Amino acid sequence: MISLTGSPIKLSLLGNTINRGRCLTLTLYIASRDATYGPPIHLRDDMSENPEPPKINKGSLQELIGGLSDGIILLEQGGRIAWANAAAFAMHRVSSIEELGGDAAGYRRTFTLRYRNNHLLEAGQYPIERLLAGETIDDVTVEISPAADLGLVWVHTVRTMFITDAGDKPDALALIIKDETSRFEAEERFERSFNANPAPGLICRLDDQRFIRVNEGFLEMTGFTKDDVIGRTVEAIGLFSNCETADDALSKLNDGRVIRHREALVPLPGGGDRLVIVAGEPISVVEEPCMLFTFADLDARRKAQNALRQSEERFSKSFRLSPAPAAISRLDDFVFTEANDAFLQISGYQLTEVVGRTAGELHLWEDIAARRALEQKLRDNIFVREEPMRLKQRDGDLADCLVSAERVEINDEQCVVWALQDVTERRRSEAQLVEAIESVMADTSWFSRSIVERLATLKQGSAAPTTELLELSERERQILGLICNGQSDAEMGETLHLSKNTIRNHVASLYAKIGVNRRAAAVIWARERGFTAPDRKYRTQPERKPRKK
After folding, report:
1. How far, rounded to the nearest angstrom, does the alpha carbon of residue 123 sit from its chain's CA centroid?
2. Which end of the chain is more exposed for a tag (fewer CB within 10 A), N or C?
3. H helices then E strands: how many in the chain?
4. DSSP letters of 119-185?
5. Considering the domain boundaries, does residue 418 fall inside one?
């Protein structure tokens, strides 16, 4: 009888008595923890009336276990290594018992063993020595290196077995070894990549849903510490507490199924929450079923969306409440989509009459060619600044406006914001001012510079030079300055040493460029744009004495 204790390898003797043939069929199975190795061996022998139990020697047993994938080392009671299979030699990178050390003491001298926490095993702690001491070992994992090359490391999982003979006496001691090097290397690679990955990640066991791994990405995203996370459950962290599909996610977690990405609000340790996209993938960590959670941080997007919404609200309020007429149209067809109260007031239209129609359909501008030119500028992404236009009101009246417009993106659509400045009253006042100035400038020879300047600034104060002024040539600015100083054509010719005809040509060119046709209008134009005439002395008409009666 052969008895095996210690579990993983089992020998089974199954007997069937066939009366007529008087024979015994014995089937011998040798099995490891996970599977049956090799075909069963049938031992057939004729039976007598008093059959004797069959005998199986060590040679047969060694032949049977020699082909196992697990490494087997058999020891004698004195500690000598009696036998080892090919797998055991391969796991130690040797080819003979002598290279294993020959006995337990030699094995300890030949190989250095460490636990996974890098703690060295001392004499008496080696599994082979604990086996000799009669201790049962069940799956202890160690790192093993040749004593001559500690840089070479393998990972073995070791257990022990005692084999007794028919008299229940110890017949052999077995050290059973499984090479776990590839698995642990793969897990170490996963650990390194998991920890180094900037994307936030968590791993929890499926059996109790407690977190066993957390990377720096998650800690930085949430402000948790490692101790705040490790050992706590998914429910305690509140991973799906603020998720619309929490029930579905937790059901899949309980079943160990894939959790498709979904938005969730992860509670933060200091209060508040963080918007994320979370997904779960079932994995195995050290042969334990687990769930890997990965996250995409959407909080920056949420803050940007909130800022955009607040900005749009401020724009909407300022747009509606602005005293300046304003409207919004689409860029592609210039159909109005919005208009404020000031725009409706100046145009005379209702909001329902404006929205959904174009300026052309409303006949909003008197000059159709100028309107089309403005629209083309905007298509070409050219800003429009204070373009003079005449707006046709609903009742038929006209309003002088300065039109500004610019392209903007609203709700992912290219639009145009129109802003109008009603200058009708100013234009009327300017016309009246020009008439007043002309009435007293009939003879400018006696009209002093100070009076001209005071008259010109009645309506507008001085302003910063505009691009229109800068576009004038040096000669044109000289002519404009002398006009503002009240000089006649003859005086300008004398000042500039030019003929009277040349002066008239320069004046005509200046008028055409600035859009006026009278001296008084030129003075107003210059003063509105902050033009300062050169400081010169002027000839004035002598003061007239009153006539004697």
Report:
1. 55
2. C
3. 22, 20
4. PBP-TTTSHHHHHHTT-----EEEEEEETT-TT--EEEEEEEEEEE-TTS-EEEEEEEEEE-HHHHH
5. yes
- CA dist list (Å): 226 to 158, 216, 220, 222, 234: 32, 9, 11, 11, 15
Do 190 and 286 have their domain in common? yes
- 242-267 CB burial, b ≥16 within 10 A, e <16: ebeeeeebbebbeeeeebeebebbbb
Residue 539 lies in a domain: no
Residue entry with tokens 């400018």: 444
Is the pLDDT higher at 224 or at 448?
224
Indicate whether 72 and 166 sit together in one domain. yes
> Domain of 379?
322-422
- pLDDT tens digits along 219-264: 999 999 999 999 999 999 999 988 999 999 999 999 999 999 999 9
End-to-end CA distance of the chain: 167
| Greatest Cα pair distance in the chain | 183
Residues 172 and 75 in one domain: yes
Q: Looking at this protein, which amino acid is placed at residue 110? A: T
Q: Which residue has the higher pLDDT, 315 or 466?
A: 315
CATH number of the domain within which 368 lies: 3.30.450.20
Tokens of 148: 């001559």
Whether 307 is covered by a domain: the verdict is no
Task: Name the packing angle between helices 449-456 and 474-484 (round to 10°).
Answer: 100
Burial of 421 (0-12, 13-18, 19+ CB in 10 A): middle
Q: Mind listing the pLDDT tens digit for each residue in 377-419?
A: 999 999 899 899 999 999 989 999 999 999 998 888 999 999 9
Task: Say whether both 141 and 193 belong to one domain.
Answer: no
Q: How far apart are CA 336 and CA 355, in angstroms?
A: 5
SS3 487: coil
Percent of the chain with pLDDT over 90: 45
- The CATH number given to whatever domain includes residue 496 is 1.10.10.10
pLDDT for the residue numbered 32: 41
Q: Which of 387, 422, 457 is the last residue of a domain?
A: 422
The count of structural domains within the chain is: 5
Provide the residue count of the chain. Answer: 549
